[in-house]
Structure formats: structure tokens, C-alpha cells
Amino acid sequence: MTDYYKISLEILSQILKTEGYDHWEKWMQEDMKLWETSKSVEHHLHAYGGMGSFNDVVIGNNDIGGLWKGRIFGAFQSLAYGLASGDSLATILDRMQNDSHIISGWRCLACGNAKITITDVEAYVASYFIPKLFVEYINKNQLVDLIDVDKILTSEFITNKRNAIKKIIIEASITLSDDTNWQWKCPKCGSNETCAYRWELLENETKIVEANDNLPLKK
User: Of 39, 202, 216, nearest to 110 (Cα)?
Assistant: First the structure.
């Protein structure tokens, strides 16, 4: 029977070593040792909770690759913690599933000018695919391959999904931008009535509409 707890610790250790988190890399090594010698998970569970805990480890920078690295790392954290807590693999994978079709962006409440960034699109695509990739790679017994972010980012199905979402956004007359700076003033009308805004992708992601929980537009 595949030991997914041990595998998750090994992968976390590998990521932490690559990213220069020596303290936490050693912690994972100790977790593995305790698991192999006594099947104890207490040391791993003690890593979570409170300031400066394992929850606060940040993986990845602000680029697209960094976004995926961070989210994949977080998924492996959830896998390790869930298994250590006694949850079944099926329960953890089910909990990872993201059924939300919400994508975030920015909007001017005064004139309706709207913007979704490339990063917003990537965050949506990552949330959609990472749970599915976990299931796929577990079934192929290739879970470690999930940390090959460059390969994942250039895969055909993710590229197609990304391009399809971008096309829908552009067709809805929403600006698609690589500028992630907050729009304190609307570049169209000069109003400072700007806010975070949410849209929902409908009809098998062929249509984008305003979500129901936004602030109302002025007109």
C-alpha cells in the first residue's frame, strides 16, 4: 500500500530545501524519521498553528510560476496534515476540490470600467486544476512530478484553459491586464470609487457574469 503521508513529507522537504527553508526542511526530515521508526505524527502536527508556524511559510514569488508553486506547496501541506490527523486520502482530495467558478478583479463603481489581471486568471486556473492534478498523479503513482511547475504551466490542457478564460474576459469588454497594481483611481473616468470585484463563469465556462455579492454600480 502506498504511503502517501511519507511521500508528502518527502516532497515538502524537497520543496523547502530548494526554497532555502532549512529549519522546516529539517523538521520534515525529523517527521519522516519518527514516522518510519514509530509511526508517530505528533511532531508534524506541532508544526502548525500560531505565529511563525509552518502555516506561515511562503513559497514562490509574485510571478505566475511562483503562484503555482505556492498553491501546490499548500496542497501538499493539506495532504500531510490531513493524513497525520487521521483523515482518509479520499476525504482530503474531496476537500481540495474547488467547485467555485468565481474569478476576481477590479471595478470602478462610478463608470463600470473593469479589469481582470493575468494573475487573476492564473489563480482561477490553478484553483481549478491543482485538485484534479493531485487525483491524476496519485492514480499514476507520480505525485512527485507535481512539483515540476514549468512542465505543468506549458501543458496543453492548462494552456487551452488559460486561453479560453482570457477570450471570455476580452469578449465581455473587461480589460485583461498584466498590471497587478491597485487602481486607486479609475483610468477611464478618474473616480476613486474603485473596489475589488467578482465575476462568475457560467455555462461550462463560456460566459462571464457579475457575481451576486458585489457592491452595486452607481449606474
Answer: 216
